[in-house]
Amino acid sequence: MTNKFATALKGRSANERVEPISGTRATSNAPSLHDRPSRKNTKHVGGYFSPEVSKQLRQIALDENSSVQVLLAEAIDMLFHSRQKPTITQKTVS
């Protein structure tokens, strides 16, 4: 059995540029299907926790008619306050 990918690469130099099949290139100023205006000038902050932590956090959000995002913003503000840092998350979370 032949590997089609290896066969296609055979005979190419390591520095040879391959043009896209479609012939069109995406421009950097063209809007993407994945653009989210509400996420502009923001950065994702996250972590890995057990499923129980996720479930409990979602349950608290449900009980308080809130969202996990708002609860995390509150927790981050509390952390900043306890470390005598300015609380900045309230400016970015609505």
Automatic annotation (TrEMBL):
Pfam families: Antitox_RHH. InterPro entries: Antitox_RHH. It comes from the Bacteria. Residues 39-88 form the Antitoxin-like ribbon-helix-helix domain. Residues 1-47 are annotated as: Disordered. This is Antitoxin-like ribbon-helix-helix domain-containing protein. It comes from Nitrosomonas oligotropha.
